[in-house]
Amino acid sequence: MKRKLSDDGVTSLPKVMKVSSIPEMKTVCDALEYLFSLYPSMNSKNLGRPIVLKSQLYTLVNNRNKVESQLSDMQTSQRIRLLNIDDQIDDSVGIMKSDDFVNSFRDFSIDESKILERFAEFTSQKYHYLSLCKRVASENFSDNEISILIQNGALTIKSENSWYISTPYLGAFIRAYKAGQRGLLTIIKKTRFKELLLSEIFHRNLGKGAYLGHMYHLLAHLGAGTLNSIQTSSGLLIRM
User: Cα 220 to chain center, whole Å?
Assistant: First the structure.
């Protein structure tokens, strides 16, 4: 069943679909494929290739040790790239498929394609940390190349002598992510008892700039602990 955009541009589930439960996955791989399927198309709102959150995996797999172990294995086998997502609500870790991470630089710039592709291959195949210190950067890239990487969104400043590994479209993603995270919290806060049935959440507007969809944000909040769920006779209740 295809997803569609609502009038305000927010990805929503078809009205005929009733959402009454949170999916449960046995493996991180299955959970990632489900999460990637929730992501808007590349042509939608210029969000780039799919980025999902580690916190969402905590919700879907419901075993943090398994999530950490299987993510580590996927990193070692060069199947995924982790990214720092600096959010005011919670410090999150983003996840991209390695192929998508490399291709995101090809999508963004032709002029600097060689240096960007070399950086993408280095940070997806050889270097798996979230950030890059000046010493490691200087051993692999010239000062001019580091400047090019910063200008093209491959590196973002962490401190005076270090950078976070990034992707050119990460800024657009973070803006949409923050908007949706705040929007969902606002929806719950405005209810009388700061709680709402899951089935009712999908009928509420997440607000301007929230392009990632209700389920995407709900899974992130539940995994981060900023929202909780409880089963009731009326259905699954989401509460603060």
Answer: 9
